[in-house]
Amino acid sequence: MVSFKKLLPFLGSFILISCGSKETTIQVLAASGLKKGLTPLVEKYQKEHQQVNIKVIYGGSGNLLVLLKEKKGDIFIPAGEFYIKKAEEWNLIDTKSVKVLTEFVPVLVVKNKLFPKIKTLQDLTKMDIKIGIGDPRAAAVGKVSKIILEKAGIWNLLKDKISVKTATVSQLLVYLKTGQIDAAIIWKHLVRNLKGYVVIPIPKSLLITEKVEIAIANFSKNRQTVKNFENFIFQNREALRKNLY
Fold first, then answer.
1. pTM for this one?
2. What is the mean predicted confidence (pLDDT) over 38-55?
3. Domain 23-103+211-244 identical in fold to domain 106-201
4. Where does 23-103+211-244 sit in CATH, by number?
5. Which residues, 6 or more positions from 78, have their beta carbon under 8 angstroms from its beta carbon?
6. Cα separation of 142 and 158, whole Å?
7. What average pLDDT does the segment 238-243 reach?
């Protein structure tokens, strides 16, 4: 019979291997509008780093900021510089980790049948139609929409006529795809192949684009693993853009 003492070195090796293979979880808080571009990169990273589990929470940037404030999440990727600045102001993220990934551009979309009559933002005030926007309090696209409509001088005319305010841009897209609304302001990359609608650019004098930045939470554990993941996303930002656009 083999003695227990003789087995100890082998048992010790087994224990070390088991501990070394322990899975590390990284939680990512990402804007809904990034899902199409980010998902393939997350899948690629996990194939290359099988000991790392990436959990992505997609949502409106305002709601994601609330989660970050509650010390949830390791990586923060909102759809707008405003949310990064707030996170910096509240000491929630490492300012040195902030990197620009891409840019979101808003557009106006209207149903094909309405296009001859609606060609501009101002035309939205002339007809009784169902308008959808992101909720300015929750979604970056909603905050941008409100500012654009204010700059156009029509927010006060439209705010009570808006039929739908969604917490995320993905929800707004569903309303468009199902034909439940006639017009909306939404990110351009989401409606490239949208059927039944015409995409109308926002005039340069009114246009506001949003920088999409990535940052590491100050309270994040497994710092090096999180940093490696952030660097991977940043190094593959061109692939992210191609997946989106």
1. 0.86
2. 96
3. yes
4. 3.40.190.10
5. 29, 31, 61, 64, 65, 84, 87, 140, 212, 213
6. 14
7. 95
- Give pLDDT tens digits for 125-170: 999 999 999 999 999 999 999 999 999 999 999 999 999 999 999 9
Q: Does domain 106-201 have CATH number 3.40.30.10?
A: no
Structural element, H or E, at residue 134: strand 131-134
> Three-state DSSP class for 49?
coil
User: The tokens of 21 are what?
Assistant: 């293979």
Residue spans per domain, the chain: 23-103+211-244, 106-201
* Percent of the chain at pLDDT exceeding 90: 87
Cα 173 to Cα 194: distance, rounded to the nearest angstrom = 9
Residue 10 tokens, joined:
């082998």
Q: What is the largest CA-CA distance in the chain?
A: 92
